[in-house]
Specification:
193 residues, alpha/beta, TIM Barrel, 2 domains, 7-stranded parallel β-sheet, 7 strands, 41% helix
Length: 193
């Protein structure tokens, strides 16, 4: 199975309305960028720039993302899978905390919560939560994908045709994933292919 979805921002005040609009258009799944609120202490530190858009505070993000996710899950069709993308910004402890705070069953997938250089870190996180992971957009070869596939560390393969080494290598990783009951969720191929 290959997922297709639009990506929305939890920072958008119209997030709920936009989600409903995409559902009404027939999209079968929604992917949401985690909320990135700017905490008060950061605003105080950067008083010359009252809205420092390059500031990321994990605990503030977790709190707001859980709040928005809870609202979306309560108000949207329960059959629509919702996923959250964290762009490798959390530590293992922070990612586990997010998964534990999110309402049970609210997440269809959590995408790239931590960096993927160390499969052991994902193995540790896997032991702390049952939330399905979407991993793989930064894999540079089938060998980098191997532990994630063979150890069952990912549930959705986010293979990126450009990063993985082209169509042939992507095809191999997708076939390998399928043999391990891992769904394919391709990452942006950055081209016309």
């Amino acid at each position: 199975h290959v997922f297709g979805f639009p990506t929305l921002s939890m920072n958008d005040p119209d997030c709920l309305a936009k989600c409903q609009d995409y559902i009404d258009q027939g999209w079968p799944c929604l992917r949401l960028g985690a909320a990135t609120p700017i905490p008060g202490w950061a605003k105080a530190l950067h008083s010359a720039d009252p809205e420092p858009d390059n500031m990321f505070e994990p605990r503030a993000s977790i709190a707001e993302t859980v709040e928005v996710l809870t609202e979306l899950r309560a108000k949207l069709d329960k059959a629509i899978p919702l996923g959250v993308e964290y762009h490798h910004r959390l530590s293992v402890a922070e990612a586990a905390s997010f998964c534990q705070q999110a309402p049970t069953g609210s997440l269809a997938f959590l995408e790239e919560p931590i960096r993927d250089e160390t499969p052991e870190a994902y193995a540790m996180l896997r032991q702390m939560t049952g939330v399905p992971f979407a991993i793989g957009e930064e894999w540079a070869s089938k060998w980098q994908a191997r532990p994630y596939i063979e150890q069952g560390l990912t549930n959705f393969c986010r293979v990126d045709v450009c990063n993985i080494g082209g169509l042939t290598e992507a095809h191999k990783v997708c076939g390998w994933s399928e043999a391990h009951y891992i769904d394919i969720m391709p990452h942006n191929p950055l081209g016309a292919v």
